[in-house]
Amino acid sequence: MPLARPLKGMGILQVKNKTQPVWNKAAGRASSRAAGRELRLKLLIAALFLPEGLSFFIGDFRLTLARVLLIIFSIQVALGYLRGPRRVFIMSDFFALAASAWMLLASTVTEGFGGIKGAGIAAVEFAGCYYAFRYFLGPINSSVRIVDFASKVVVVVIAIALLDPLTGKLFTYELTKALTGYTKPIVEGELAVHAESLFRDGLVRAMGPLEHSILLGCVCVWLGTLAFFTFPRRFFGWSVALFALIGLWFSQARGTWVAYVMAFGLSGYYVVTRGLSLRWKLIGSALGLLLVAVFTLSGAPIATLMKLGGISPSAAYYRQTIWASAGPLVMHSPLFGIGSSWNWQAYSDLYGPSVDAFWLQNSMNYGIPASLFVFLTMTSPFWRRPLDNSPYLSLEERRLSVALGIVTTTAIFLGFIVHFWGACWILLGAFAAIRANLVEAATLRRRAAQALSRQGAVVGTGEKNYRFGFGPRSLKVQRP
Fold it and tell me: Which of helix, strand or coil describes residue 196?
């Protein structure tokens, strides 16, 4: 009978016999393919933070390196799903496709076939990123390594962004303008009048290579939370969280400050109630009751919620005015929206230069179902059993699963008071895919453990036991 030993990192028994050289070659090829897939995702993450001025145009169609990569990866993923092995189905796999399909359909209804261009690239950015991460992430700590890399990238991004307030100008924007000649009329106009969107409290708001300081604030919240919660016992995790706080401060995006406080509050709540299995249901129920009370009793519910969150009354009522003005437009065409090319600024009841609310803006562009499908893509990977106590995941994977829940909560909250586009819109798909990958990894490892356990029971007991998985509650598998 061939001898068996546990395969390092997976906890899967590896058979040792005369075919061992063949096994090693196959394992080596699989490892190389996995490393190549991770490298593609790392390249995509780095491309997300390249300055907008480095884009190139095909006619009036702007292509960034991230968009080009997503188009290429989407084709690779589609071909890979057709010929690759069957994967564990997560409901977000369906909702991501439904979101992109509805966006295309809604744009065709409201704008004709000409609307497919804008909706198509938005669908590729969200769903294409989701499926790229779902397909390219490997089974063993791949998600943790990607988050580790993204955390290092965001430190570099913040360091570049700090040059804006330090130099008293939009350093990255001015540099790329000098190199490529690319300018944005809206930015030039705001610079000319020292608009609050670029200047606040006598300082230039940090945005670095991103398109707006709001986007930098969101990235700081999300990556700072992921790094801190996933690597709490490493100096790296604490330093990234601190650096994110510095970037957040100089972005002067008030809504994201509230989100960062919320993230750390939820982290503390998790630590305190770790032994309580109903902790998320309790806090979810409490928040649900609060929302019902506010929307029932308050004449300005959005403003009330924002003031409860510590946001200034002027900013709170500005957001309330946006919802009060644009909400009827959405309800006039709830299924397909009013289209992304509609000149909403000409609508006399709208206030301000933009709709600073992602859920509202997305519903205006593509209808309420599109926003619902995006929301379900973000949340459905959490529908299965919690992963923080799974014996089939490593410690950092379990921490990452909780951190992703906290990040998703902050993203949902921020979606009511800020708009996501560019890197932040793409990252929404990435976070959902990383969580889905963790669910898939836990499921596959559990199935493998059960299969090996049954095999061991049939063959009989041996002289030595091996553990399957990670941690003290890992399943023991007997060597035949």
Answer: coil
